[in-house]
Amino acid sequence: MQVKKNQKHLQREIEKGCTETAPLSLFVSPAEKGRNRVEQRAAAVFKVEDYLVKSKSWNKHIACVIQIKRHTEILDTKNKVWKVREETAYYAASHVHEASAFAAAIRGHWGCENKHHYVRDVALKEDASRIRNQPGIFARLRSFALNIFRFNGIKNIKGALFENAINFNNVRNYQGVF
Questions:
Q1: Is the pTM of this model over 0.70?
Q2: Do residues 117 and 77 lie in contact, with contact meaning Cβ atoms separated by under 8 Å?
Q3: Cα dist from 166 to 125, 145, 159, 162, 170, whole Å
């Protein structure tokens, strides 16, 4: 579970504990290059029993804290200048694993976010939808369309939507429709 700024007391305790204690394990991912950016992540796992206040009833469920530091260099294509961005995120876990396992799980979660939710928001414009009465029906239709596209190996959902809008007969060529 990611610890965010709306949990300010917990976040303050975790940040302080991560600076004052040594990590149980560390993992630095190789630099990932793509789309005018270079990104590298460092994961560290910290045991929390020495510094996390036990007065909160849910704190007993936190076994460790994961600190993810992201170093990103983004190319500003207009000015041809690399901009550097540093971010630190904290996650609470109910079990202890190696930093490499946590790093893979957290990165994998964002893969799901990018593959599913981003497509729904950008290609299908779900956030801009003005449907107020029973929006779940249209959400299921969007899911149905995405499942058919994914089943047929389509990666560019926006392009497939455009092609199918131009020629509705394309839909008949998809497996799993009829």
A1: no
A2: no
A3: 18, 16, 11, 6, 9
C-alpha 43/C-alpha 128 separation (Å) is 36
* Structure tokens, 50: 């020495």
CA within 13 Å, CB half, 163: 13
Sequence-ordered list of residues with C-beta below 8 angstroms from that of 135, at least 6 positions apart, any chain? 129
Q: Are 48 and 64 in contact (CB under 8 A)?
A: yes
Burial, 68: exposed, middle or buried (Cβ in 10 Å; 0-12, 13-18, 19+)? buried
**Tokens at 110, concatenated:** 């964002």
DSSP state of 49: T
pLDDT tens-digit series, residues 160-174: 888 888 888 888 888
